[in-house]
Amino acid sequence: MHHEVETQWMGGMQFNVDVNGHTIVLDAPERAGGEDNGPIPKPLMLTALAGCTGMDVAALLRKAGKSPDSFSLKVTGEISPRPPIVYTAAHIIYTFEGSAANRQAAFDAVGRSQGELCGVSHMLKQIMPVTWDVVYNGETLHFAATSLIDNPESACVTPASSLAA
User: Fold this and answer.
1) Gap between the Cα atoms of 125 and 127, Å rounded
2) Contact indicator for 160, 143 with CB cutoff of 8 Å
3) Is the pLDDT of residue 86 over 90?
4) Which of 45, 48, 65, 136 is the most buried (most CB within 10 A)?
5) Domain range summary for the chain, segments of one domain joined by +
6) How far apart are the C-alpha atoms of 70 and 54, rounded to whole Å?
7) Is the pLDDT of residue 157 over 80?
């Protein structure tokens, strides 16, 4: 099994990418010679990370019958100061609103996604730290995460704060 994308140059700096029958338009901002008709490519790595772990968490919570009232993710990528410009770290903020009774399930779903399910996160942890926080009904729960480059045996998490209320 494999994944494949097809990319067609559309002129200027624009490329149209076919991903499983869905078109993603990539372009550069005007200052870089593009027409700003789409995102530049690099942030799509953060998009893939958010989508992968977000889908894991949503599926786990749905299966457990613990769906939140709302759920969002914000992913930030730290970039290197000099070319080649690469991400040097990523940080995810998972934000939930919902019943206090579902707080532990959300916390566990994030941990399971990051520890064993999210392939995008696992790939990125091979080259850089990926850290995260969970915000549930406005309360931030901090995590300390290990990357595979620091600890090849595990990419699991250690809660830096207790869930006990």
Assistant:
1) 5
2) yes
3) yes
4) 136
5) 1-39, 43-159
6) 12
7) no
